[in-house]
Each structure stands twice: as C-alpha cells, then as structure tokens.
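Aim 2 progress. For PoNi C-terminal domain-containing protein, the working sequence is reproduced below.
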Amino acid sequence: MLRDTRADQAYFDNVVEYLTTRCESNDRRFERPVEKWADPKMIGQVAGDVMKQRWDRFSALYSQGASVEVLRAEFDAVLSDAERALRLELEFLPIEQRVVRFAFGNSKDFYREWLSLVSLALAFRVDDATFDRVVAAVEFGWGDRLIDRLIASRRPLHPVGETLSFPKIVGALNEAFDAADPSQTIEKYLKNWYTAWKGIWGWGGHESLGKNLYSGYWAFEATGVVVALGIDGTLFRSNEFYPGDLLTSGASA
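Predicted structure tokens for this construct:
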C-alpha cells in the first residue's frame, strides 16, 4: 500500500523502475577495467556518488509500499554497494582527498548514508555477521557520537566519540540517549526533519515530480534510535517522516 501520498502509485512505480535501471547501469560501469577510466581517481569518487541512486531506490520502494521482506532484501543491495564504495575509495582516492571528502561536518549526504545504514541494520535486527559488515562499511563515520552510539547499542565495546558531525541537524537524536523522556526529543527531531536537512540530495524533490527527483522523505535514522533505546515507536506513527513500517514484527513498531 502506498505510504507517501505526495505522489501517486504510478509515480513511485515508475521511479522504482527508473532507479533500477540506473543502479544496473552503475554496476556495469564498475565492471570496466581500470585502464578504461580516464582517471583512476574517478573510480573512487564515482563509487561514493552513485550511492545516491541506491539509497533513492530504497526510499522509493518504501514510498511505493514494498513489503518489509522486499525492503530487507534491498538493504542487502545497499550494504553491498556501500562496501564497494568504501573499497574503491580506499583503493583509488588519495588520502588527502579522502580526508577532505569525508571530513566531519563536510557532507550531509555521506553522513546521512552512514547514519541510515546503521539505523536500518538495527531496525531490521540483522544477524551479527551482517551488523559487523555494516560497522565496517561506515568506517569514515567512526568517531561521530551518534553513529557510534547506535553501533554501541549492539557492540558495547565500540568506542563512542565526542564529536557530533551535524549538531544542528541531529542534536535532538543524540540527546535522546541521555534524556529522561527520549520520546520527546525524537518527536522534536521528527517535527523539524525537513527543515533541518535542507540541501541534502533529493530535498525539494516533491516540487519536481516530473523529473523523477522525488523518492520520499523518510527519517530512517529515527528508527535506529527507537530500536537502540527500546522506545515504543508507535508514538511517532502520525509523523509524516517516520518510517514505522520498517520495523519488523519482532521490533518496537
């Protein structure tokens, strides 16, 4: 059943099909030998950039009304692409370029991808081996206090950093870990979600539906905090950005 009413079912069906083609094209691109690339550094850069289409497809599937089983399978595809991106970034991007590209507070898009990947792993209650893959895939996000806290909810020995990459955006989610009533801070976060994330990839896309730029506005990261803290997620069901259907029958809804 359609979850996002900013567009109709036919729109999201079309967007999923369009993004499926884009993702398949991206996969073929990385099958090319290194010598076919004009500059090998582009391999590492493109590997990270094309994650946008993979995340858009996951979001569009959720908006379209895909089942939890379909979304769980798509999560595996997202994780595999994230692992590929990290591997190629480490192999082909010079360290000085990586330092700037992935510096804390530099890219909201990369940060949101790392945060979403860990949060979805918690929401889907993935097995330990898969969770370890997720932790490894977000290596460039280690040291961020919120990402580390989410990881530490399943890996208590994981060190938790003191730095919050985007405090003005996710400060409320981070505060939830220390709050007497964390549901209030999460509710505050969700209420301001769209405004806080201004400028991210796809922001404002609902105003350009004819260009396949909109895949849905979903605070996937909120589900991770809900699971990590054992909160009753049904409290947020009425919020338009909260993807409550992601949580399986064994998790808080």
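The chain has one domain: 9-246. This observation will guide construct design in the next reporting period.
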